[in-house]
Amino acid sequence: MAEPVESRPDETWLERIRAMGPEIDAAASAHETDNELDPQVVRMMDEAGVFAMMAPREVGGAEAHPSDLIDVIAELSYWDGSAGWYAHAVMTGGAVAGAYLGEGAMPAIFPDGRYAHVAGQAAPTGKAVREGDGYRISGRYSFGSGSPHAQFLVGGYLLQEGGKPVMNGAGQPVMLIGIAPRETVTFMGNWDVMGLRGTGSYDYVVNEQVLHEDFVHNTSAPVQRRGGTLYQMGFMALPCISHGAFAIGATRRVLDEWKAFAANRRRPDGSTMSDTATYHRDIAMAEADARAAEAYLRSTFDKIFDAAGTGAVPDHLRLDGRLATSHAYVVAMRIAQTAYAACTTTVLRNGHPLQRAFRDICAGNAHFLTAEQSIIDAGAVIAEVDGAALVF
C-alpha cells in the first residue's frame, strides 16, 4: 500500500504517470502469457498514488478532478491498455468504499490513510439477506478486473426477504454493493482472453458469509458519508470517465503506431505510405475523430462536475455523460480497425504494440457500459421514445 496522496511532491498527475510510461510499456509483453500485470508495474502505480486518485481526501485519497482522472487513465492506457484498465477498476473501488461505506469499514480498507485496494464486479448476481447488524451474502461474478492484488472484492447483491426480492419505492429490486475480504473469496483462475490480458479479470465466488453493514452500500438509497462534488455527479459518472479515458489513451497509441509504420515502411518504388494521398486523407480524418471524441468527453465531465457542485446534474448532461463515453469507443474501434488493416502483416505478428492496442480496444468495447446497446438506449432518449431512460 502506498503512502497517502497528500504527501506527494508538487508535480502534475500527468507528469508523474508519463515518467513511468516506458517501463510500463516494456513490461506489457509479459502479461500476454501471464494474464496479470507485472507486480512491479502495480507497485509503481500504487507508489505514485494512482489507485487512490478517486478516493475521498478524508481517507487519504486525492479526490481528483475529472480532468486529472482522464489524464492519468488515458496516459496509462496509451502505454498499456491493461495497465489503464486495471488502474481504473481499482480507482473506482476506492471511490465507492471511501464515499459510501460506514465508519467501521474505513480502518480496514484505508488503514492509516493507505488504500488496501478494492476491485471486482458490481453486477447484481449475488443475493443478500438481512441478518443482525449485517447481511448474509453469497454470489458468483465475472470480469473481476483489478482483482489480483485487491484485498477486498466488490459484489452486487439483490436484497431478499422470505426468498423474494425486496422492492424499493420505485418498484425496483433493492441492489446492494458489498465489499468482502479477499480471504472469503474463491478465484476461478480463468482469464484467457483476446484483449486486456494483463487485467487478471478472473471470475470469482464470494463465499457465503455475514458481512457487517458498514461494508455494504445500498444503491437504492445512497448515503454519501465522505467527499464532495466528485461523488455527486451520478453513480455511473466515475465508471464513464474511466472507460472513456481508456478509449482515448488506447486510440492515441494506435494513431502513433500507425504514423510510425507509415513513415518507415518502404514500398516497392522506394516511397513510404506517408507519401500517399490516401494515407493523408485517412490519418487526417482519424486525428479529427480522435480529437473530437476526447474534447466531447472532457467538456462533458467538466460541465457535469460544475453542475454537481452547484446543484443537481440536468438530464441533458446525464445523457451526454453516457453518450460521450460510448462515442469514444465508436471512434476507437473505427480508428483501430482502419489502422490495423493499413499496417498489413506487420501488426499480424504477436508483440506489436498496435496489435495489442487493437485487441485491448475490442475487449473494452464489449463492456455493457459502452457496447452497442448503450448507444441504442441513448438514441431512444434523444428520439423521445416513451419510457426511454439511461442509468447514470
Automatic annotation (TrEMBL):
Residues 23-92 form the Acyl-CoA dehydrogenase/oxidase N-terminal domain. The keyword Oxidoreductase applies. Residues 242-370 form the Acyl-CoA dehydrogenase C-terminal domain. GO terms for molecular function: acyl-CoA dehydrogenase activity; flavin adenine dinucleotide binding. One of its GO terms (biological process) is fatty acid beta-oxidation using acyl-CoA dehydrogenase. Signal peptide: none annotated. The keyword Oxidoreductase applies. It holds the Pfam family Acyl-CoA_dh_2. Keywords: Oxidoreductase. It comes from the Bacteria. Gene3D superfamilies: Acyl-CoA dehydrogenase/oxidase, N-terminal domain, Butyryl-CoA Dehydrogenase, subunit A, domain 2, Butyryl-CoA Dehydrogenase, subunit A, domain 3. GO terms for cellular component: cytoplasm. Belongs to the HpaH/HsaA monooxygenase family. This is Acyl-CoA dehydrogenase C-terminal domain-containing protein. It comes from Novosphingobium malaysiense.
